[in-house]
Amino acid sequence: MAKAVIINGSPTAGSRLNAIMEYAEQTLTAANFEVSRIDVAGLPPEDLIHTKFESEHIVKANGQVAEADAVIVASPVYKASYTGVLKTFLDLIPQKGLAGKIVLPMFIGGSLAHLLAIDYSLKPVLSSIGARHILGGVYAVDAQVARTEAGGFDVAEVLQERLTSAVDELIEETRYRTGRTDG
User: Fold this and answer.
1) CB distance 76 to 111 below 8 Å
2) How far is CA 43 from CA 3, 11, 31, in A?
3) Spatial contact of 91 and 59, defined as CB atoms under 8 Å apart
4) According to DSSP H, which parts of the chain are helical?
5) What pLDDT, in 10s, does the model give residues 18-72?
6) Are 128 and 97 contacting, i.e. CB atoms less than 8 angstroms apart?
7) Considering the entire predicted model, what is its pTM?
8) 3-state secondary structure of 129
């Protein structure tokens, strides 16, 4: 069974980004992937800020990345880039920690003004830690993810289509590169 990890770079528990990550997780699970998640904001701040590579929490999170065949890196866009909390975690991934992984970036922002944030801010960092198979990614706009009265989210159909296409590509590439057909 193929493994995927979702790295959640949002500092906010109720972020609209959750809807996007949940959609991806459901799609991967339906394709028989084993999916885990790293909520970076839930890691001890002192471990992140003081780059404590030996911290049990960082070692565990890096273990999830090491075991994964596919990695989704998700973040809201702040100041034309991904979040600082995500950057602190990416700095703790070993130098070649993403080598051999299929990586799918997923961002959400307030407007289309930062559409290229994935290409200009995230992809160079991912490449520096060994990623060579980075898919195009999905950039969503806040307006495409509405909050419901029940506390959930409603994802616009156009975004669902783009997410399905991107996650299906992740599944296909992972199966091709790992030779696994069971997930």
Assistant:
1) no
2) 21, 11, 29
3) no
4) 17-30, 45-49, 56-67, 84-90, 117, 123-128, 157-178
5) 999 999 999 999 999 999 999 999 999 999 999 999 999 999 999 999 999 999 9
6) no
7) 0.96
8) coil
